[in-house]
Amino acid sequence: MGDGVRDGLKFSSLDSPLFDGADATKGELIDYLEAVGERLVRNLRARPLSVVRVRPGQEPFMQKNLPKYTPEWVPRKTMWADSSKREISYALCDDLRTLLWFGNQRAVEYHVTLLLAEELVDYAGGPTHLVLDIDPAPDQPFDQVVGAAELIRQALADDGLAGAVKTSGAKGVHIFVPVRDVNIEDAAAATRAIAVRAERLDPALATTAFIREDRGGKVFLDSTRAGGATVVAAYSPRIRPGATVSFPIAWSDLGQIHPRDFTIRTATKQLGDRDPWAEQMPDPQTLPADLIEHGHTIPVARVQAMHEGKRRARARRDT
What we know:
Elements lengths: L3 E3 L2 E3 L14 H19 L3 E6 L7 E3 L12 E6 L4 E7 L3 H9 L2 E7 L3 H4 L8 E7 L6 H17 L5 E4 L5 E6 L5 H18 L4 E2 L11 E4 L7 E3 L15 E2 L17 H5 L4 H5 L8 H8 L4 H18 L1
Parallel strand pairs: 11-12
Antiparallel strand pairs: 1-2, 3-4, 3-6, 3-7, 5-6, 7-13, 8-10, 8-12, 9-10, 9-14
Helix pairs in contact: 1-2, 4-5, 5-8
């Protein structure tokens, strides 16, 4: 493929391998991003973007702050980051040209916040979605994920809610629940409550235990994607063997697929001209008050795990 020009952008090294184990070239990444185009941009637009890039011979790295050489036409939003105690200039991938520019920078993965950029400036707004991340235990089949996802689906239905499901592009799935008129704290609480209610439906299969050693081979229902956390966007490629893609799945098809079925080489054929993520996403929903109230009684998983880790460390020292 060599080099080339598309959308007024000059592309380089298109024949080079994308990353070890990708079984694809940089050019095939660009082709894929161009093909999914607006369908991927629709999930990125107006949200602070973090990308995972991979350079030849180097380990992948996440990039949040735009580099100095970024063209002026790339949309951006500058915000204070408490974690790094500095201002970060986030890209807003609002159009195909910006997406292709990132592809030429060897940005493979595209992660966005659940809040729009304007809502994140002072955290005064709320998320557009809740997200439940279903993570299988090591060496367990994908069937474990399917069963746990159905628990989440049932827990949602019991509260009159619905969500859409996609592969994470790795080993698990993400369930998105579109919401309205909810602040960050209440959204996080509701996410915790949904996970706990799903766990209670089949505690032999699923767990909300944040500490790995406490999971006992069960599938993990991760309710920590809240606040300013990011999640990989639907249709984003992943830096995984075969260059898999985070792909929308109909609930009725979840038991017949595997995350490795969807790659940058196969996904566009499976999509055709459709946008199943938009088609399958329910309308925004109002969260029941009792769900939010229940969630506020559940400890925040990361905080609870931190305190428990310290307690166990003290116990080991004492013995």
